[in-house]
Design goal:
CATH superfamily of one domain: Bira Bifunctional Protein, Domain 2
Strand order of the largest sheet: 3-9-10-16-13-12-11
CATH architecture of one domain: 2-Layer Sandwich
Keywords: Aminoacyl-tRNA synthetase, ATP-binding, Cytoplasm, Ligase, Nucleotide-binding, Protein biosynthesis
Catalytic activity: tRNA(Gly) + glycine + ATP = glycyl-tRNA(Gly) + AMP + diphosphate
Number of strands: 23
CATH class of one domain: Alpha Beta
GO molecular function, one term: glycine-tRNA ligase activity
Largest sheet: 7 strands, mixed
InterPro entries: aa-tRNA-synt_IIb, aa-tRNA-synth_II, aa-tRNA-synth_II/BPL/LPL, Anticodon-bd, Anticodon-bd_dom_sf, Gly-tRNA_synthase/POLG2, Gly_tRNA_ligase_bac, GlyRS-like_core
Bound molecules: adenosine-5'-triphosphate
Distance between the termini: 38 Å
Oligomer: single chain
Protein name: Glycine--tRNA ligase
Shape: globular
């Protein structure tokens, strides 16, 4: 645990030191769970967004992208169920005065049981070596089976109690499991209460005429209310999707873990409109497709897993998370939800407008069903950033800190470095930048010895360093150094662009999805 915490602290301080993420309004001591993306962070975030948009919108003929407003008519949130049901179950510890999400306390307890299972698996895998069959071990080892049954039973009971609004039972469960306040160790709990997560604000100049608004807690509703506009103007035929990226706001109670849980964050969502009855098939397809997208970035297959929900949201008939191994353990990165016709039917009811599709093959009109994929851009940022930050032991017994960001996402693709600040080398370096900057984000760096500049670029995540030396003046060549292997090659200046292009081109990365 201590190592995990330590690793996570390193991630946070590295993000600050290398210009990725700053605490919002830091000079006023910050604002809790609100962050600003700095010069490198803004580029990385933009690249992740583009990687998603390319895969979801540009490469799918039947998916289009929109950009709906953050403010929406307040009835939207009545129809969607957010006014009545977008709640988190809260519990306070009477001694420490700390407030927790009751479901998170229970999930953390279950995560500890799961960690025990992982430990048993690791032990057995060491003992049996190559002959180890994990599946069989999980199914037959009595201790592991007991752990798993216990974990399943707890989650099932919690899911049921939350679904039935039986908050007294959620409290009983916390007491029966003997869960203590992580801060104080006290087990002196209040009752569990519901707390609405939407931020309210007002529209209008005078107090009497002002209209109560909400900052949207998800981007999805901007798509649902535009469903018919997009379908008609785009002449879309079912099945088709509408995608968008944008800010969402939630008054999170337990806002912690850096950019994992923020009060203002960005979502990348896609709602896929389908014929009723085909939702199972599309749900499975999108689960598979989205996992492939993640795997294409090469962060390691072992760092992802699916978690099927026992506790379903009010709109869903099936839901799964893609979980990622963050520095603090496996946690939700993306959700795939089969939302039925809940949202469109609700908007029909509340607006009095028909939101139906005439299916020319079936020759009938219906309210489409929806399967959605919903990922937090900031969480994706944290997944990529934390996974990429590595300390490497080098042969000469030194270590280097290297941020092995997938080259396609790296904020800066190359740094151009004149070996010395004189003899016309800076001019050559600037000329190279003049040419490359039309294709890639590149920077110039002439400060410090070249070895130190390499280390700086390694830590900042720049995949290539291009060094201009005296030989460059004679034969128009430079050395190109690769961040991950630290190998250096002498190449013609005229080749540099195509070498970088080969490694950072989105096409070859996304083609790994198959
Ligand atoms: P959680 O259970 O972690 O609160 P959720 O199930 O409420 O998340 P969804 O409503 O399914 O999340 O939102 C879709 C995605 O948006 C999540 O998978 C996550 O990546 C992202 N997300 C949700 N809440 C936050 C937040 N407060 N900060 C950053 N990202 C978030």
């Amino acid at each position: 645990m201590a190592k995990q915490e330590d690793d996570f602290k390193k991630v946070i301080s590295h993000a600050k030191e290398y210009g990725y993420v700053f605490q919002s309004s830091e000079i006023y001591d910050g604002l809790s769970a609100v962050y600003d993306y700095a010069q490198n962070g803004a580029e990385l975030k933009k690249n992740i967004r583009e990687y998603w948009w390319k895969a979801m919108v540009n490469l799918n003929e039947n998916i289009v992208g929109i950009d709906a407003a953050i403010f929406m008519h307040p009835t939207t949130w009545k129809a969607s169920g957010h006014v009545d049901a977008f709640n988190d179950p809260l519990i306070d510890n009477k001694d420490s005065k700390k407030r927790y999400r009751a479901d998170v306390l229970i999930e953390d307890y279950v995560a500890k049981i799961e960690a025990k299972i992982e430990k048993e698996v690791a032990k057995a895998s060491k003992r049996f070596g190559d002959t180890f069959d994990k599946k069989q071990f999980l199914a037959t080892n009595q201790r592991v089976v007991d752990y798993q049954e216990k974990a399943d039973a707890i989650l099932k009971r919690m899911g049921k109690s939350l679904e039935n609004e039986d908050l007294a039972d959620v409290k009983s469960l916390i007491e029966e499991l003997d869960i203590a306040c992580p801060m104080s160790g006290s087990k002196n709990w209040t009752d569990v209460k519901q707390f609405n997560l939407m931020f309210g604000t007002k529209l209008g100049a005078s107090a009497e005429s002002a209209m109560d608004l909400y900052l949207r807690p998800e981007t999805a509703q901007g798509i649902f209310v535009n469903f018919l506009n997009v379908q008609k103007t785009g002449r879309m035929k079912i099945p088709f999707g509408i995608a968008q990226t944008g800010k969402a706001f939630r008054n999170e109670i337990v806002a912690r873990q850096f950019i994992f849980r923020m009060r203002e964050f960005e979502q990348m969502e896609m709602q896929f409109f389908i014929r009723p009855g085909t939702q199972k098939e599309w749900y499975e397809k999108w689960k598979e497709n989205r996992l492939k997208w993640h795997l294409s970035l090469g962060l390691g297959e072992e760092n992802y897993r699916f978690h099927d929900h026992d506790k379903l949201a009010h709109y869903a008939d099936a839901a799964a998370d893609i979980e990622f191994r963050f520095p603090f353990g496996f946690k939700e990165l993306e959700g795939i939800h089969s939302r039925t016709d809940f949202d469109l039917s609700q908007h029909e009811k509340f607006s009095g407008k028909k939101l139906q599709y005439f299916d020319p093959e079936l020759k009938e009109s219906y309210v489409p069903y929806v399967v959605e994929t919903s990922i937090g851009l900031d969480r994706m940022f944290l997944a990529v950033f934390s996974n990429s930050l590595q300390e490497e032991e080098l042969e000469n017994n030194t270590t280097r800190t290297v941020l092995k960001l997938p080259a396609v996402l790296a904020p800066t693709k190359a740094a151009v470095l004149p070996l010395v600040k004189k003899d016309g080398l800076p001019d050559v370096a600037h000329k190279i930048i003049e040419d490359l900057k039309w294709d890639f984000n590149v920077i110039y760096d002439e400060k410090d010895a070249v070895g130190r500049r390499y280390r700086r670029q390694d830590a900042a995540g720049t995949p290539f360093c291009i060094t201009v030396d005296h030989q460059s003046l004679e034969d128009q060549t430079v050395t190109i150094r690769h961040r991950d292997t630290m190998e250096q090659h002498r190449v013609a200046i005229s080749e540099v662009k195509s070498i970088i292009h080969k490694e950072v081109d989105m096409r070859s990365w996304l083609q790994r999805m198959g």
